[in-house]
Amino acid sequence: MSFQPVLPVVSPNSSLFESSHDEATCHSSTRRHLLEVRVFELDGALQAEWTYSENLHRRTTIQNLANGFVAAVREMIAHSETSDADVYTPSDFPLASLNEEGLKKLELLLDDSEELLEK
Question: Could you tell me if residue 24 is left (phi over 0), alpha (psi between -120 and 50 degrees) or otherwise beta?
Fold first, then answer.
């Protein structure tokens, strides 16, 4: 499944859905979780691979989760493209080691300095 700027609805026959058909595969797998979602960028497109056991989940259930994921990503993209105000999170500044409180203090400091420069 390829997530281009306009994300597709997930096809139930997508090759990016991997299922384990037998009980032995499910329990001897190197997976740490019952459902694994691997999301990565490839050639400028967001990709997602869903791995699960058909002994535990129905394909339609995983498809519904994937479609919900696509909808959430679309919503985040739409919000980021239409937002008038610059909104930052600590993860935008990984080298600064800021937490949410530190970022708020920095924003207040910068706002105050802008007001001083305008006078």
Answer: alpha
